[in-house]
User: Fold this.
Amino acid sequence: MGLLDSTLDIGAAAIAGAITSVGIATGAPGTDGLSNQSAAAKQTVAWSTPSGGDFHNTADLVFTGGAANGPVAYLTLWAGSTYRGYKAISGGSDTSFNAAGEYTVPSSSITLTGSSTT
Assistant:
């Protein structure tokens, strides 16, 4: 037995409502999300309507103020000033700010996936 997709969507909607912004860490963010934080300001994030417990960002997130050509290793997830988790940047993804210190996270590239097993 497992949870129905419609039930997973209830939980996913609550999580999406609690994660209001995304930041960038240049290395492992640590247990409080504060280690290796980039100088680029956090960006407000909007999420898709959950489907099957999954949801994603609905618009590009454009960060400015990072170190020129500096590393982008993690996206950090926040509810105001409360750290909620992270997503590693890897697997062929762009892993550095450009020469102007800018970095764009494309729409639909942050996907959070829910599942249920019993």
Q: What stands out?
A: The chain has a mean pLDDT of 92. The helical segments are 5-18. The beta strands are 21-25, 43-44, 55-56, 61-63, 74-79, 82-88, 103-105, 111-112.
